[in-house]
Design goal:
With 139 residues, this protein is mainly α. It has two domains: 3-42; 59-134. The protein contains seven helices and no strands. The longest helix is centred in the middle third of the chain and has 35 residues, at 44-78. It is elongated and about 65 Å long.
Amino acid sequence: MKKAALYEEARQLYVEQGMTLADVGKSLQVSPTTLVAWKKDGDWEADRRAYLVERGCLRDVLRKIVRKLAEHVLDELNRGECDPQRIHALRSALTGLALEPSRIEAPAVVEEVASAAKASGLTDEVVATIKESILGVKA
C-alpha cells in the first residue's frame, strides 16, 4: 500500500472508528513513531472531535425525523388511514436510531404507534403485523 493510502486508512481508523494508535499500528503494520507523527502533523485529534460532534448532530436529526414520522403515522392511524411508504420510512429511521448507542426512543415510538393502531380499531392481529412486518419488532 502506498504511503498516502496508508496514511488515509490510518487516519480513518483513528478518527472515524475510534481505534487507538496502537491498534491502528497493529492493524496496518505501521510503527508507533510514524503514527504519532501523522497524528500530530494531520491534527487527527481535532478531526476526531469534529467527527464525533457531527455524528452527534446526525443522531439528533434522526431523532427529529423519527418523531415527525411517528406523528404523521399516528395521525393517519387515528383517521383510519395507513400510508405504507410513511410506515416504511418510520421503520427505516427507527432502524437507524436503534443502531446508535442511545436506543431509548425507538421502542417507545414503536409502542406508541402500536397503541394508536389498536385505538383506531385495528385488531390485535393487525397491530402485531404492523409491529413485526412493518416496524420490524417481534410481537
